[in-house]
């Protein structure tokens, strides 16, 4: 009987520790060019895609952005690229190239959320995801200012 109780307590403690570890890692950290900018970003994990508010991303990538002539169109501009995204659409246009998105941009509570990897790579930044630490690392290709 003592062995069963001990085994049960051990298993409960292991499950409790594992669940605390999983909860602790639910925060997504974001690093730009080696600088931790997690506090500057709200994040939203949808499926396997990290979304960020477009305004937060602009503070780091420094692109020009505006909402297009239709409310769902997002236009992002740098010296080299113009990127077109449409809320709810899984396609992104980079200059004249059409690219497929894993998850579409969306709007929620007045905030426009865009897929971090797709937009950063659209401006030729390198993006690395560490699933064990929930860390997104973005290395920009120099200035993208317009």
Automatic annotation (TrEMBL):
SUPFAM superfamilies assigned to the protein according to its UniProt record, in alphabetical order = Copper amine oxidase, domain N (SSF55383)
**Which keywords belong to this entry?**
Signal
InterPro entries given in the database record: Cu_amine_oxidase-like_N, Mao_N_sf
* Signal peptide as annotated in the record: 1-24
Residue span(s) of domain Copper amine oxidase-like N-terminal? 32-137
Per its record, how is this protein called by name? Copper amine oxidase N-terminal domain-containing protein
């Amino acid at each position: 009987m003592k062995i069963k109780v001990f085994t049960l307590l051990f298993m409960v403690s292991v499950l409790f520790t594992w669940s605390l570890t999983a909860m602790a890692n639910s925060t997504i950290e974001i690093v730009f060019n080696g600088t931790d900018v997690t506090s500057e970003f709200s994040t939203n994990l949808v499926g396997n895609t990290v979304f960020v508010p477009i305004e937060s991303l602009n503070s780091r990538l420094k692109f020009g952005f505006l909402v297009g002539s239709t409310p769902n169109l997002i236009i992002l501009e740098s010296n080299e690229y113009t990127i077109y995204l449409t809320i709810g659409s899984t396609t992104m246009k980079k200059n004249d190239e059409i690219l497929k998105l894993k998850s579409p941009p969306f709007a929620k509570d007045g905030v426009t959320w865009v897929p971090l990897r797709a937009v950063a790579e659209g401006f030729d930044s390198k993006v690395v995801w560490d699933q064990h630490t929930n860390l997104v690392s973005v290395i920009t290709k120099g200035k993208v200012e317009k």
